[in-house]
Amino acid sequence: MARREDRTFEFSRRGVLAGAASVAVMTGGLASPGTRGPLIVNALGGLENPNLGLGRPSGPPADTGRPDVDARAIADARGSGLSAVNIALGYVAGPDDPYDYTVKTIGVWDRILRDNPDTLVKVDRAADIRRAHAEGKVGVIYGFQNAVQIGNDLSRIDTFGDLGVGVIQLTYNPANPLGDGSMAPQNRGLTAFGRAAVERLNTRRIVVDLSHSGETTCLDAIAASKAPISINHTGCRALTDLPRNKTDAELRGVAQKGGFVGIYFMPFLTLSGHASAEDVVAHIEHAVNVCGEDHVGVGTDGDVTGIDDLAAYQSHLAQEIADRAKAGIGATGERADTYPFVVDLRGPDQFHKLARLLAARGFSTTRIEKVLGLNFVRFARDVWGA
Fold first, then answer.
1. 70, 123, 192, 384 - which has most CB atoms within 10 Å?
2. Predicted structure pTM score
3. Which of 381, 380, 351, 382 shows the shortest CA–CA distance to 368?
């Protein structure tokens, strides 16, 4: 379904959606009366089995064109209670033409959804997430982690919207024609073309995602956007001073605009690069303190299925990090001795374990349910429509 063109947005910052109840934290996670458990949304993640790629040569850095989606990955996602996930598809970096490559990967995911109608459902509206949750399926949100595939043609935003893309991240780590990424040393803001792109994304009701952006680009986009915007996967720079994390000014600006901030399960949560579940909790707590409890959620930047053999994975990771550095898309804090996930927050129990840890820190059940998914649904409703 093509997303409706409309400039009217709701900016109210509601807490939970109608019908959400405050319930007890149960053993093994949360339980909501009359539902399949809590509604859980991963604002940036994957639906792949990462073990499948360990035995073959690595492809181009940040390759999204060959997703390893199998029965195990889908079963693990459903078993985790995941209601919806924003997947990263389309061009990030590499030798291919960004536009052609992106259209191709959208087609790949269209086929995956057609092949798995009993377990996966495409998300075009906030109601699709609730429907996926009620039916025990996983909602799939099409999202980009770069916007270079727009080229110099804003009409491509319309094309992507017609193809069902719901989230477009303005930059990856380097600079692009829209603005500077988090690793661009000049820290310049949005370009004139970037401002025009934000306006067109607003018109098409596509989420403007400021993950990976430089601080000035992020603040400029917050000011320019007429709609709530997001930082779908980040950490808090006040806790860990690395470029991939966001300052309090950025976090607060997104919240004041009615937007959404997702905390990732990534090495950037600690200067050591060896992040733990407690680090995830600490960054969520800080984001809630800055943004308020209605604007914070989770964007793990990873899959639900865990790595079976971490030792075997280490050499694969070393090559991946080297390839990313050579391509100029790496970030300060990612090294061959770090993992792009939190070791003690992996597998199908990751969201429920997080809920238990948040409860131990004094988060109420209502607040936990907001963080797990309801905040994203509220935000999605304001941008995409009900």
1. 123
2. 0.91
3. 351
